[in-house]
Amino acid sequence: MIDKKTLLASLLGASVVLPLPALAQDSASDSDPVTLRMAYDADPVSLDIHEQLSGGILQLSHLTHDPLVRWTKDVKFEPRLAADWERIDDKTMRFTLRDGVKFHTGNDFTAKDVVWTINRLKRSADFKAIFDPIASATAIDEHTVEIKTHKPYPLVLNLATYIFPMDSEYYSGETEDGDPKDEIVKNGDSFASRHSSGTGPYEVVSRQQGVKVEFERFDDYWDKDSPGNVDRLVLTPIGENATRVSALLSGDVDFIAPVPPNDLDRVRADKNVELTTMSGTRIILMQLNQKRVEAFEDPRVRKAFNYAVNQQAIADRLMKGFATPAAQLSPKGYDGYNDSLEPRYDVEKAKELMKEAGYEDGFSVSMMAPNNRYVNDAKIAQAVATMLSRINVDVDLKTLPKAQYWGEFDDRAADIMMIGWHADTEDSANLFQYLTECPDPETGAGQYNAANYCNPELDEKVAQANVETDRAKRAEMLQAVEKALYDDAAFMPLHWQDLAWAAKKNVKLEPVVNVMNFPYLGDLVVEQ
User: Fold this and answer.
1) SS3 letters for 365-409?
2) Rounded distance, CA 62 to CA 78, Å?
3) If you count DSSP H runs as helices and E runs as strands, how many of each does the chain have, helices first?
4) Which GO terms describe its molecular function (predicted)?
5) pLDDT of amino acid 102
6) Diameter of the chain by CA atoms?
7) Which of 137, 221, 345, 495 could form a disulfide with 323 if both were Cys (CB 3.0 to 4.6 A apart)?
8) In terms of DSSP bridges, do strands 82-89 and 212-217 run parallel, antiparallel, or are they unpaired?
9) Residue 267: helix, strand or coil by DSSP?
10) Which residues contact residue 463 at a Cβ distance below 8 angstroms, ignoring those fewer than 6 apart?
11) What's the whole-model pTM score?
12) How much is the pLDDT for 125?
C-alpha cells in the first residue's frame, strides 16, 4: 500500500505524460521561465470545453480560450474577443470582434468561428438549455456577428461569457478513424476531448488525466496589455483537502484551490503564504413545504422561522467566517440584489409571531439535508434545528449523502429541505425561476421549489423582467421581487458560501480571482 506521503510525491513529481503532438511546442527561452505549480481539487475531465458545464471546465476555458466578454470582480462585463457590442433591436445584438487574433494553430480568428461555436453549444447536452433563447448567429463580415433571440431577451451578454470561440478550421473534417472532429462525446474519447486550439493565454502541451496537466504561454497571444508573466503552468489534482493544503505549506506547490474552511486558520498562520477569500454567489437556504405543513401557509409562521435562526452565528462559528449571511437569493452584484434587505434574527420577535399565529406551543416538523454536498451542510441543518427549538418547534432531522438526498428532494420527502443554488447565468431571474416560481412540471418552473410556494403575481413580474432589455428598468423589477419575497418570508435564506484560494506570497492572486471562481490566470503576476 502506498502511503499518503509517497502518493503525494508521485503526483507532484510525475514525469510520465501523454503528449499531444498537435499541441506541443518548443519552450526554450532566453531566460528562465516563470512557472506556477497549481493544485486544484480535481483536474478538467476533458479538453473539450463543451463536453461538461462545470467549474473545472470553465476554469480551463479561461486558460486555453477567451470568451467574447467576461465578468469583472463587481459582476460587470468587460470586452475580450468582442471589442464592442450594441443592441440593434429587442431581439438582435451585434458584436464587433477584435482583429489580428490568432488561434494556437496559427489560424485567424474570425466571425465564422463565433457562429460555429454557438451552433456547437446549442447541440451540447450540458449547454443547450442555456443557449435555447438564441434563434441564430450570423457572420455579417469577418469581424462582425449578429446574435438573434427568439423573443426579447436581456441576457445576451450573460450568455456571451460562455461563448469561448473554438478554432472551426481545426475541428472541421474527420479523424483517421472517420469520426467527426467536432463530435461531442460525454465522458468519452473524442478528437476534441484530446486536442485543443483556442485563442487563450495558454496552450496545453501535455496531459495525463488525474495526474498532471501542463500549459505553456502562447507566444502570439493577442492581449499584449495583460500584466501576466507566467510562462508555464503545472496543474496537479489533489482531491484530499488536508493533502492539498500541506502541499502548499511545504512548498511543493505555489497555489491551491479551494481552501477548506477547517484549514483557513492553518493557512493564515503560515507567514510564507497568503489567503484570499471573497463572498461567493451560491445561496444556501431552507424551504418550508406549505403543502405538507398547514402552519407554513401563514406568513407569520414563516417569518417566525426566519427570526429564530441566527445566520451570523452559523457563518462565524460553523463556517468559521467562510460565509456571508443572506436575507435574499440575489448576491451582491446581481441585478436583483436589494441592499435594503437585512438578515433578521430576534428570538423574542419569533415567539411573538408564533403566538399571534396561534402556535405558541409550537409543533413538530421533519427536516432533510445532504451531508456531503455543501460546506458543513449537515452541521448547518443541525444548528437550524436547534435554533428552531427555541420557539418550541421540534425538528426530526435526517441527513443523507447527496446521491440519496436528491431523490428525496425530488419527492419533497420532508417538511423542510435544504438547497443550494448558483445561477448559471449569474442572474437573479434564474434563482426565482427555479426556487420560488409556482411549480409547473410542463414548463419546468419551480423545479427546485420544495416549499411549493406560489405567488402568480410575482411570477408575472419575473416574466416581464425577462423580456425587458433596459438593464436599469429590469434591475428595479427584480429588486422589487426580492423585496416581496422577503416580506412574504417565502423561504429561509442562510448564507452565500465564500470562496478561498491560497498561494505563496510572491503569487499575486487577489487581482485575478472573482466570485465566479474562474481565476484569470493569464493576467497573473508572480514576483521574482
Assistant:
1) EEEEEECCCCCCHHHHHHHHHHHHHHHCEEEEEEEECHHHHHHHH
2) 14
3) 15, 20
4) peptide transmembrane transporter activity
5) 98
6) 79
7) 495
8) unpaired
9) helix
10) none
11) 0.84
12) 87
